Amino acid sequence: MVLSKAASENDLSVHSTFASRYVRVSLPRFKMPENSIPKDAAYQIINDELMLDGNPRLNLASFVTTWMEPECDKLIMDSINKNYVDMDEYPVTTELQNRCVNMIANLFNAPLGEGEAAVGVGTVGSSEAIMLAGLAFKRKWQKGMKAQGKPYDKPNIVTGANVQVCWEKFARYFEVELKEVKLEDGYYVMDPEKAVEMVDENTICVAAILGSTLNGEFEDVKRLNDLLVEKNKETGWDTPIHVDAASGGFIAPFLCPDLEWDFRLPLVKSINVSGHKYGLVYAGIGWVIWRSKEDLPEELIFHINYLGADQPTFTLNFSKGSSQVIAQYYQLIRLGYEGYKNVMENCQENARVLREGLEKTERFNIVSKEIGVPLVAFSLKDNSRHNEFEISDHLRRFGWIVPAYTMPPNAEHVTLLRVVIREDFSRTLAERLVNDIQKVLHELDMLPARVSAKLALAEESEREVHKKSAMEVQLEITNVWKKFVAEKKKTKNLVGSDSVEVSDRIDELTCYFCILERAKTHGLFFSFLHFHSSETYRFFDLPFCAPAHVTEKKEALGEVLNGDRLVSAPYKLDFMYDKDSEIVCKKKLSKEEVSQFCSAVAKDYYFQMYYDDLPIWGFLGKVDKDAKADPSEYKYYLFKHLHFEIFYNNDRVVEINAQTDPNSLVDITEDKEVDADFMYSVKWKETTTPFEKRMEKYSQSSSLPHHLEIHWFSIINSCVTVLLLTGFLATILMRVLKNDFVKYAHDEEAADDQEETGWKYIHGDVFRYLKYKSLLAAALGSGTQLFTLTIFIFILSLVGVFYPYNRGALFTALVVIYALTSGIAGYTASSFY
């Protein structure tokens, strides 16, 4: 259930499009209208709004069935007005439900005697089924503890950390302690050994999952059963097992018939399964089956007669439609064992096609298993530039809904994408999805790393991943800092120093906030040939949160020449001090300010800041196109939460990354006032990367500043101009040389008749020409040029032109000064010659 929020009086109304043929007035969005409207108008208005929903067939996040045969659709519509709880009025519907319970119980190998009816009930889904099964376990445990005269006020249940949220709801709603087995890196399901270790006298049951929501893997229920049997024998307890087979209950019997996970195991007392998942029925049907009547306490069953006859009921809700029960019975008799097996094998084959297609890209690690729910869970091998959330976001442009999510505690550093293979997901769609993923990867590779991606280019092996709680990390940081201080004091005592000053350093986040507007052609992605000039603006030209006193940073000559203006930011990053959701400011953005932000987000503005001379880049917001062709239908969002991740080595900052919270957004699409709480959080982590190497990752990316754009057309135009001028100059020189040669030949003939005596006989031998005069002249010219170039570079360095913020400026200056000093080389060489 989604919690709703009431709107204010000035909220926009619902306006009709084609329905204006029938109604010309707008309808209130959150209040019932005063007057009626024609049925055609009501249909058209709602249908138009529903067009913005995603395509259910392309919703690869959901396990829920999205297609059924037309005959079943007709049965559903024919019975949609039947209330299931009216058993006396609709006895056949009740009989169909009982048949479904018995069919499923037999499928799960329930130990039924001859003519014995199975014990189970239909629910609205596995969540309700789990609540009912959990209540049965709790009540049975309480009765046993009361009979032994022991306390029964602290029940607990053991599960893996990968359980679905309904287990957490059960524990919270019915006051049961949830004991979760933490996941391990590379092993993303519950470990049976660790689960049994956590079992105690107050454990009402151990919940095993047949088909993890995270990666589709089947947990080892048989191993769990064997270990628990041994522990029950040792302790005298009777701890049972519940199998959450919401996804795998209609898969394992057909694909893995020899796998022991169901009532063949003696400690399995109840099983839930979702009919609306791989039971192949539309949403709204689930089942819970008990091993025997003894496993369902009688006091939980209610008997009512105000609908015409005595009716036993064990549900959390009362009224519900009967159409889904009828649809489930249709599928069971229509497909039979053979039909279900064919469907599941086809799903498994399509999952294989998708998995192999992703492996061929050599960009992903496949986390899902071949035996399990037919889905493919995968993660990027290298997410240093772009992450899984960006892939998920970009795939929406193609219509695909592919979820990205982080794993539970102890594996939260792993982010996955997941594609659920349902009956309506064909091989053709699998191949098309792989092609679209490759397109997205190609597009992302052409972009600079976004703020949501880690900017670190260092090897992952250089940094150990700490899988600890926030409290443990804080404690570890404190201990490291104490150890560092102790070592400093020890050093002071050894060398006899007067004092060693160790203080909690607060590095002011003095940021250069420059918002660069990237020129855009049709679509977001284009090659470097189509880049236009970048424009730089001051950060506070947009209505961001400003500190109480904005201070300007003293700038070197290079910063002034480059146009940088560094000002203090409202973020306070205290050294080795973590912060969680620190509020920068709360603002009510006016319509004009919203319009400014919307324009900036639409044009892909991004900011740049510096912390301890380390650059950080990030986009202001995002555009949700959601496969819309018309830009007027795009949704614009402003990021309002920035997370800083800072790596340090001893007392020096080595690396800083920034990430935005994809769930913390402000909708700025509509031209209206909005409230925005701008926040940030800080996380400090230790690294082994030495301080001297912290700039390597930036130098590897490019020899030029990241915002320096190369205008190839101008370069080509300049080259052509140089060639033309060179040709003109060569022509002129050839004519001059020709005239000189003619004149020289004429003068030489005239001098042949003159008598040459005395000094004229000697000077030719003393002052003869060098053998390699041209080479010497060229060497002297080039040497003079290099000497001048070196002097210029030293002078510019001394006055502060080359500073850490402007990566690659030295190389740029070398090229420019070398070109400008070429005249010196030519003049020196020609003068000597």
From TrEMBL:
<dbReference type="GO" id="GO:0000139">
    <property type="term" value="C:Golgi membrane"/>
</dbReference>
<dbReference type="InterPro" id="IPR002129">
    <property type="entry name" value="PyrdxlP-dep_de-COase"/>
</dbReference>
<dbReference type="InterPro" id="IPR015421">
    <property type="entry name" value="PyrdxlP-dep_Trfase_major"/>
</dbReference>
<keyword id="KW-0812">Transmembrane</keyword>
<keyword id="KW-1133">Transmembrane helix</keyword>
<feature type="transmembrane region" description="Helical">
    <location>
        <begin position="775"/>
        <end position="803"/>
    </location>
</feature>
<dbReference type="GO" id="GO:0030170">
    <property type="term" value="F:pyridoxal phosphate binding"/>
</dbReference>
<feature type="transmembrane region" description="Helical">
    <location>
        <begin position="809"/>
        <end position="829"/>
    </location>
</feature>
<dbReference type="GO" id="GO:0010008">
    <property type="term" value="C:endosome membrane"/>
</dbReference>
<dbReference type="InterPro" id="IPR010107">
    <property type="entry name" value="Glutamate_decarboxylase"/>
</dbReference>
<keyword id="KW-0210">Decarboxylase</keyword>
<dbReference type="Pfam" id="PF02990">
    <property type="entry name" value="EMP70"/>
</dbReference>
<keyword id="KW-0456">Lyase</keyword>
<comment type="similarity">
    <text>Belongs to the nonaspanin (TM9SF) (TC 9.A.2) family.</text>
</comment>
<feature type="modified residue" description="N6-(pyridoxal phosphate)lysine">
    <location>
        <position position="277"/>
    </location>
</feature>
<dbReference type="Pfam" id="PF00282">
    <property type="entry name" value="Pyridoxal_deC"/>
</dbReference>
<dbReference type="GO" id="GO:0004351">
    <property type="term" value="F:glutamate decarboxylase activity"/>
</dbReference>
<dbReference type="GO" id="GO:0005516">
    <property type="term" value="F:calmodulin binding"/>
</dbReference>
<feature type="transmembrane region" description="Helical">
    <location>
        <begin position="710"/>
        <end position="733"/>
    </location>
</feature>
<keyword id="KW-0472">Membrane</keyword>
<dbReference type="GO" id="GO:0005829">
    <property type="term" value="C:cytosol"/>
</dbReference>
<keyword id="KW-0732">Signal</keyword>
<dbReference type="GO" id="GO:0006538">
    <property type="term" value="P:L-glutamate catabolic process"/>
</dbReference>
<dbReference type="InterPro" id="IPR015424">
    <property type="entry name" value="PyrdxlP-dep_Trfase"/>
</dbReference>
<dbReference type="InterPro" id="IPR004240">
    <property type="entry name" value="EMP70"/>
</dbReference>
<protein>
    <recommendedName>
        <fullName>Glutamate decarboxylase</fullName>
        <ecNumber>4.1.1.15</ecNumber>
    </recommendedName>
</protein>
<keyword id="KW-0967">Endosome</keyword>
<keyword id="KW-0333">Golgi apparatus</keyword>
<keyword id="KW-0112">Calmodulin-binding</keyword>
<comment type="function">
    <text>Catalyzes the production of GABA. The calmodulin-binding is calcium-dependent and it is proposed that this may, directly or indirectly, form a calcium regulated control of GABA biosynthesis.</text>
</comment>
<comment type="similarity">
    <text>Belongs to the group II decarboxylase family.</text>
</comment>
<keyword id="KW-0663">Pyridoxal phosphate</keyword>
